[in-house]
Amino acid sequence: MPRHGQFVPCASFESPPRPLTGERRVRDAPLPNESNGDTRVRIEGITKIGEASVHWRRDGSGPPVVFLHGFPLSGHTWDSVVAHLRDRFVCYTPDLIGMGQSYSDAGDDYSSQGQARPLQGMLRELGVDSYALVGNDTGGWVARELALIDQPRVSRLILTNTEIPFHRPPWIPMYQTFAHVPGFGSVIRQLMKSSAFRRSSLAFGGCFHDMTHLEGDFQTQFVDPLIASDARMEGALQFLRRMKFARLDEFKGLHQQLTIPTLFIWGADDPTFPEPTAREMVPQFPDVRGFHSLRNAKLFVYEEHPQEVAQLIDRFLSDGQQ
Question: What is the pTM of this model?
């Protein structure tokens, strides 16, 4: 069995949510959407930190950048952004606990603060001494938790369409309540088989300006596993149960402690975290270097405009290296 901090390489991007611990397997694979013949590879693995098993991917070379995804996705959601950045940066895209292939036997690891601790440990075990941090949606909340406890190593912070203190995103409080009801996971799995439900505001309707993004790779990577796997659905429900808005509201004061240079990139049409409300949050941060609003984009702005988001990240981080 892996000990605390032990790295277990993974063989496949389609491994079950609970990997076979102790089995040493390696596979490198090219990133998707490579039309230029570039066959460079990325590495993925699992690092055991306490009761948590954190699944991660690493690609590229240069200064480290860590990307944290939102609910109910996985690190794969950043693939198109990484494809634009890996020439200049080494990009880490871990799965949050309860999402993708990361899980824990400790319930506290599914909370916002609990998520940050295994991520901090994973980065230490991988030898990452200093890194920039990018977060979207709930990954932006967890990014702030991680920056609080690991601030000496976090060089820069980039937040895209993420939680705002004292703002409640549509439907999530209701889902948090129902997540405690036995059988709710089975109900959601049946509903998610319906295209009409997936496109509604109850599901992913607020995530994309162009709803065709819901089909293809997005459905295969993020929707279908929730429908097919009891473990994936239970991980998502555990995530909902443990993320507490009372903790989020504390960040109205905690943001002042995040003295690192911070950049905001926002999908202008997002109904989940509206841009005007986000701009009201910005003065809570001591060192804001910019707020970029991208049109024709909602919650998952980087999925719809990966090149623009990557260019903004590159420019911000490159300025910091000068």
Answer: 0.89
Q: Where are the domains of the chain?
A: 61-118+126-321
Query: Which residue, 178, 160, 172, 203, is CA-closest to 303?
Result: 160
CATH class for domain 61-118+126-321? alpha beta
Q: Is the peptide bond before 306 cis (omega within 30 degrees of 0)?
A: no
Q: Is 20's pLDDT higher than 60? A: no
Query: Each residue of 21-64: pLDDT tens digit?
Result: 322 333 444 444 444 455 456 899 999 999 999 999 999 999 99
Hey, what long-range contacts does 182-188 have (CB within 8 A, 24 or more apart)? 184/237, 185/230, 185/233, 185/234, 185/236, 185/237, 188/226, 188/233
Residue with tokens 């590879």: 41
For residues 200-227, average pLDDT: 95
How far lies 184's CA from each of 99, 138, 174, 289, 313, in Å?
18, 21, 12, 43, 39
Task: State both tokens at 131.
Answer: 């890194």
Unique residue bearing structure tokens 């905690």: 254
Bridge partners, residue 265, by sequence:
160, 292
| Cα gap 59→51, rounded to integer Å | 26
Per-residue pLDDT tens digits for 105-124 = 999 999 999 999 999 999 99
